[in-house]
Design goal:
With 535 residues, this protein is an alpha+beta fold. The protein contains 16 helices and 24 strands. The protein has two domains: 292 residues, Periplasmic binding protein-like II (D-Maltodextrin-Binding Protein, domain 2), CATH 3.40.190; 219 residues, Dipeptide-binding Protein, Domain 3 (Dipeptide-binding Protein, domain 3, Roll). The radius of gyration is 23 Å and the shape is globular.
Length: 535
């Protein structure tokens, strides 16, 4: 596919395709007739097990990691948030909250679901929700979840048994979106056994955590006391069709794809287009993800804007998206047109290796040590063919005159220590790091990316401009068209300073065995309650 042109892409504006939903199911172990969204029926026999092959193991099973690509396949099935997204319309819908409203510019009120219990038997109520949310969002705990709050401080308070207020230090019109991203762990566990928070998740979800054999597998099983078996309209799925799930971790795409052919897995995530086409079933879908290159601007070499521009011009983005990844679109900014604040007037940075070499030579002539050693890194098991991409880019940068750039693949935990270092001030000027990662804006609002990557205290920011921060704080408080324009202005502001180099909007490829009915969600979550079966 070619470079993105002006205008919004139809597949994003229209939303995702209809997902097949189970409306009726009998108790586990009994035959059940399932009615789909299209009105047809399929015959499910007994509740079955699923084996899901993932590219990477979670770095942690703490609830704050439920936003991430390594964490949410497990955690979003075990823990739940106040809100979720409708798998058909993509709109915010009730989950642990049944309704919500803004009661003043700084406060949102959530009315909570009755009769919900955590997997440890403790009651879900406003007091428990407030305690857990305040723990997860505590600035002193500094969990990476805070990246998506853009410096906004949120505090939860129980009004009564089932009424929860969440107040922010400045008005935040998208707080419900941020809280859709924030699952709620057991307050009882946090109070009585906080040491287990990282490895033993306790939530309210349709599946309970059973076991984590590190480096091998994670097992979860159906929660017989899940509220969704009672409040079926709000559940958007059922846990009666899948009794237990076995997650295994295989970083090699060919191994994950091969497991489908041998019957060792029912579902394989993040495989190549060719492997997907060869699978019994293939789901290849656009995403809200953007492949990006982040540059350490505190570094004395990378602080030179000519060097950063040269990096942007030296990267052949079309070749990466088309030849290495086999599909997707070249990106013009860190978010796609699915996000409010996407600026259609910005063009993707062009591929101009001649100009890149000239800029490097100009910087060298002024005494910038462009031959200094740099690590160009990506994390394993996430971006498809990441090892090929970073080698490809490293050769391009060396050719342009940055002759000390060396590619390196890193395990998730090692990479995240360098990527999510909680603010510009924590980026050492001498660490010589350039990173490639994939950023998803599941909130579909550019503020979620700005606060994380461009503000001085952003969790993944290696850039700082106090004037930009003030613009951002004002933009975050806007609504409607004024918000859209203010966010677009932020994108334009950073365009010529090159702290982030967008590469492209990739496709995600999923392989499935025959008999499974599943449609990818726009937010990328793999929710087991949405699986149905035709055999």
């Amino acid at each position: 596919m070619g470079t993105m042109k002006h205008g919004r892409r139809p597949w994003l504006v229209a939303g995702i395709l209809l997902v097949v939903m189970a409306m009726f199911a009998a108790a586990c172990g009994d035959d059940a007739t399932t009615t789909t969204a299209a009105g047809s029926t399929t015959q499910a026999t007994t509740a079955r097990s699923l084996t899901i092959a993932l590219a990477e193991e979670p770095r942690t099973l703490a609830s704050w990691n439920a936003y991430s690509n390594d964490g949410h396949p497990v955690l979003r099935n075990v823990t739940e948030a106040l809100l979720n997204r409708d798998p058909v319309t993509n709109e915010l819908v009730p989950e642990l909250a049944t309704s919500y409203e803004q009661v003043d510019p700084n406060t949102w009120r959530f009315h909570l679901r009755q009769g919900v219990t955590f997997h440890d038997g403790s009651a879900f109520n406003a007091e428990a929700a407030a305690y857990s949310l305040n723990y997860v969002l505590d600035v002193d705990n500094a969990f990476p979840m805070l990246q998506f709050f853009g410096g906004i401080v949120a505090t939860a308070t129980a009004v009564d048994e089932l009424t929860l207020d969440v107040a922010t230090d400045i008005p935040d019109p998208i707080l419900p979106l941020r809280l859709y991203f924030t699952t709620i762990p057991s307050a009882k566990q946090l109070q009585e056994d906080p040491a287990r928070y990282e490895d033993t998740p306790i939530g309210t979800g349709p599946y309970k955590f059973d076991e984590w054999n590190r480096g091998q597998f994670i097992d979860i099983s159906a929660n017989a006391d899940w509220w969704g078996l009672r409040d079926t309209a709000d559940a958007h799925g059922t846990n009666q069709l899948v009794s237990d799930v076995h997650f295994v971790f295989r970083p090699e795409t060919e191994v994950r794809a091969g497991m489908l052919a041998t019957g060792e897995a029912d579902f394989a995530r993040f495989i190549t287009p060719e492997q997907c086409e060869a699978a019994p079933q293939c789901e290849s879908t656009p995403t809200v993800e953007t492949i990006i290159v982040r540059i350490d601007t505190p570094n004395p070499v990378l602080a030179d804007v000519r060097v950063r521009e040269a990096i942007a011009l030296a990267i052949d983005k079309e070749s990466i998206m088309n030849d290495i990844l086999g599909g997707g679109e070249v990106a013009n900014q860190i978010v796609s047109s699915s996000a409010l604040g996407w600026n259609s007037s910005l063009e993707p940075y062009p591929y101009d290796p001649t100009r890149a070499a000239e800029l490097i030579a100009e910087a060298a002539a002024d005494g910038v040590d462009v031959t200094a050693p740099f690590t160009f890194a990506a994390r394993t098991g996430f971006i498809l063919r990441a090892d090929e991409i970073i080698q490809f880019i490293s050769v391009a940068l060396n050719t342009a005159g940055m002759t000390g750039v060396t590619p390196q693949m890193m395990e998730t935990a090692q990479f995240e220590e360098l990527w999510s270092d909680m603010g510009y001030a924590n980026v050492s000027p001498d660490r010589a790091f350039i990173g490639m990662n994939q950023h998803g804006n599941e909130m579909m609002d550019y503020a979620g990316s700005v606060g994380n990557y461009f503000m001085c205290e952003g969790g993944a920011s290696a850039y700082c401009d106090p004037a930009f921060d003030e613009m951002a704080k004002t933009a975050f408080q806007q609504t409607g068209d004024a918000r859209d324009q203010a966010l677009q202005d932020l994108a334009a502001y950073t365009y010529d300073t090159y702290p982030i180099i967008p590469i492209g909007y990739p496709l995600f490829n999923f392989g499935l065995v025959d008999g499974i009915n599943w449609t990818p969600r726009m937010d990328g979550f793999i929710l087991i309650k949405e699986f149905t079966f035709s055999s």
